[in-house]
Automatic annotation (TrEMBL):
Upper classification of the organism: Eukaryota, Metazoa, Chordata, Craniata, Vertebrata
Similarity section: Belongs to the G-protein coupled receptor 1 family.
Matches recorded under PROSITE patterns: G_PROTEIN_RECEP_F1_1, G_PROTEIN_RECEP_F1_2
Keyword Transport on entry: no
Transmembrane segments: 40-63, 75-99, 105-127, 148-172, 192-211, 244-263, 275-297
Organism whose genome encodes this protein: Oncorhynchus mykiss (Rainbow trout)
Keywords: Cell membrane, G-protein coupled receptor, Glycoprotein, Lipoprotein, Membrane, Palmitate, Phosphoprotein, Receptor, Transducer, Transmembrane, Transmembrane helix
Subcellular compartments: Cell membrane
GO cellular component, one term: plasma membrane
Record flagged with keyword Zinc: no
UniProt-recorded name of the protein: G protein-coupled receptor 12
Amino acid sequence: AEMDILLEGSPISTDELWNNATYPPMGSFPPLPPLLVNPWDILLCSSGTLIACENALVVLVIWQNPALRAPMFLLIGSLALADLLAGLGLVLHFTLAYLLRSDSAQLLTVGLVVASFSASVFSLLAITIDRYLSLYYALTYNSERTAAFTYTMLVLLWGLSLCLGLLPITGVNCLAEESTCSVVRPLTKNNVAVLSVSFLLLFGLMLQLYVQICKIVMHHAHQIALQHHFLSASPHYVTTRNGVSTLAIILGTFAACWMPFTVYSLVADYTYPPLYTYATLVPATYNSVINPVIYAFRNQDIQKALWLVCCGCIPARVAHRARTPSHV
């Protein structure tokens, strides 16, 4: 039997109700509410948290261990401190951007991030210079003159990084004129271009220094091998070859992380989709995640200090491990 429903006292069949019903056209439904938080910003914040935790451990170990005061460890500490501040800057930028939504807060956090990442790149260059000098002037490397040169490099690199970080705060920004913005607001196109060109110059200098390091190391290994009257089977040759491979990995990792964002920021401006900026900026932050692994956690003296901090002992395999050229 046909089912009827009572509507205002009149029986209306179910078929009539469906036939007379009106529906909104396709696409007229209200859109879903936009995401409150950009997933890319969450990724940057997560990366900053990991960076801060890793490098805080390195800074703590070097700070608490009086034996880690050689120029090499001071430079590694400078690198870790720069990356630590960069990680904190990413976290603060995320927090203040979604809580305060203030231009002043944005300028402060962007300035901190610029200064920190600049100090990180400059510290990498200083470490490369230190490694080159330790091989070229092997007999006088631990002199007081070397320590003074190291302190001079630290003062210069942090002073220059601070100046670069202060530029957005002191008025070199695009808040007043949107057309001058770069891919990273509120940095101007000219500001980012200067940073990118400086990075390319520093990368070229680091590449040249690492080529010289490889030549010196290979020359030393060849001389040792000739003294033993064999070359390809020499353990010194094998470990030196590993050391050269390590240098290639270090430089390749640095270039893979920073080069995409550097090149993109030179050719793009604020009109480009933000997706491209995030896609090139996120890998650049990963360099600060990798730095402690390459420069700190692989170092035997820092490894021993880490074991002492974590468990109060040093495993025998760590205590008696021989240092090889692959740890250059």
